[in-house]
Amino acid sequence: MAVTLSQPTSDRQRTDWVAVARELGPRFADRAAAHDAADTFVTANYAELRERRVFSAGVPAELGGDGASHAELCSMLRTFAHYCSSTALSLSMHTHLVAVPAWRWRHEAAPVEPFLRRVAAEELILVSTGGSDFLAGSGTARKVEGGYRVSARKIFGSGSPAGCSRPPTGPSRKPICRSRNPRPLASRPSGSRGSRRTSRTMSIPIRSPAQ
Q1: Residues near 189 by Cβ (< 8 Å), separated by ≥ 6?
Q2: If pLDDT is split at 50, 70 and 90, which confidence band does 127 have?
Q3: What is the pLDDT of residues 89-117, one digit of tens each?
């Protein structure tokens, strides 16, 4: 069931993301205890989130997303947390990785449009470690024909089992290779664990803001 606001924005209707969370939430709550007991990622919840295009909610509408505001995204996450805290935690880590470049695109003319368009087009799931995302990286990116060959390790990234390591070619996505690092008990169903990306050629569009 589609949930939209009663007032359209320009020629399209905006999604009421709190209403979406309230619609999906009871099913998430029904599965929460089993995930906690079995130490399993909230895979079924993520499938429903992708079906409802939650992962591109914060992408500007001009770039293919819904254009949800910071306040709307926070309210959505707060609502999900009442039903399944692991889903809300993992989703929040993805959401801030979308919100930051979306803000920079709108306010700083940052060259992030290709990235945001891809998130919206493919409903990509981004893996975040929170604060350490903004520290010096531990990987390498070597320029090769067609892009860059990347090899890196990411510690404690929430949503790791669902994170996309390459452009999807069908309904399934290949998860990032996970490491065997121990992770805190409370974060297990959120997929907060280490991950490793083996060498892979990636096309990374780079241009200056003036271009």
Answers
A1: 32, 35, 36, 39, 40, 41, 42, 86, 87
A2: confident
A3: 999 989 988 999 999 999 999 999 999 99
Query: In 51-192, which ranges are E strands?
Result: 140-144, 147-157, 177-178
Beta-carbon contacts of residue 38 (< 8 Å; ≥ 6 apart): none
Task: Report the sign of the C-alpha dihedral through residues 25, 30, 31, 34, in that order.
Answer: positive
Q: Which tokens sit at 66?
A: 């819904």
Report d(CA 106, CA 113) in Å as an integer: 10
Nearest to 148, CA basis, from 99, 108, 204, 198? 204
- Residue 128 per-residue DSSP state: B
Q: Are 200 and 149 in contact (CB under 8 A)?
A: yes
H or E segment and range at residue 69: none
Domain spans of the chain? 13-122, 131-202
Which one has a higher pLDDT value, 55 or 177?
55
pLDDT digit string, tens, across residues 131-151: 555 555 567 778 888 777 877
- Measured between alpha carbons, how far apart are the two ends of the chain, in Å? 41
Cα three-residue angle 113-200-162, rounded to 5 degrees: 70
Q: Which amino acid is at 203?
A: S
pLDDT for residue 73: 97
For the segment(s) 13-122, the CATH number from 2.60.120.200, 1.10.540.10, 3.40.50.2020, 1.10.3860.10 is 1.10.540.10
